[in-house]
């Protein structure tokens, strides 16, 4: 005679379901707390001088941080324009994510995850403010809704201002003002076209690329970008930084 498996006691099943329900409730509370924190930080960072997660990490490990908050009006338009042209030419057109560019990069990505080429300035700003630096599809997936949110609630000008004040330009060097003074011994408002393009082309690899002592590769990239600055006007209308 075939024996059938006995069903677990009702009390044990109820206990298991109760444990799962409690776990789901805790997970829901955690998600709501994280979302609430992000909404609060977004509101605070809209008017404050926010740090990046890299800056927070350096402070936590007692490493030096050089960041001198500078309003976008006091940053050379040459640098603003160069960063837009180089990092995100459709910055003024998209809503935080350049879906066509992202799709192309994802199609060509390796197992390590999508490259910087998929990132818009809002995505990089979201990463710098809220996420970790290493490449992964998980981080990239989190960047997307955060970038869309930032682009919805902040102006393009504010996103650019925050990005230029938290971008890493070398070990412990954050923001345009600190970078200009560290590499060229001048204010970010006084940057020449050559200096602005050197700083811009150092952004993808600020640890290895030194704008103050550029190698031939960095000089070549910067020279090519400098030749494009005269045609930047159609790409930078949303930040409205007058040429000086």
Description:
- This protein is mainly alpha-helical and 244 residues long.
- The chain has one domain: Orthogonal Bundle (Penicillin binding protein transpeptidase fold), CATH 1.10.3810.10.
- It contains 10 helices and 2 strands; from the N terminus they run H-H-E-H-H-H-H-H-E-H-H-H.
- It has helices spanning 10-45, 53-60, 77-87, 99-108, 121-130, 137-153, 156-166, 176-184, 193-202, 216-226, and strands at residues 66-67, 173-174.
- Strands 1-2 form a two-stranded parallel ribbon.
- Helix 3 (77-87) runs parallel beside helix 9 and helix 5 (121-130) crosses helix 6 (137-153).
- The chain is elongated.
- The N and C termini lie far apart (94 Å).
- The model is unreliable at 111-115 (pLDDT under 50).
- Its main location: membrane.
- One of its GO terms (cellular component) is plasma membrane.
- It is a single-pass membrane protein.
- Pathway: Cell wall biogenesis; peptidoglycan biosynthesis.
- Residues 63-213 form the Glycosyl transferase family domain.
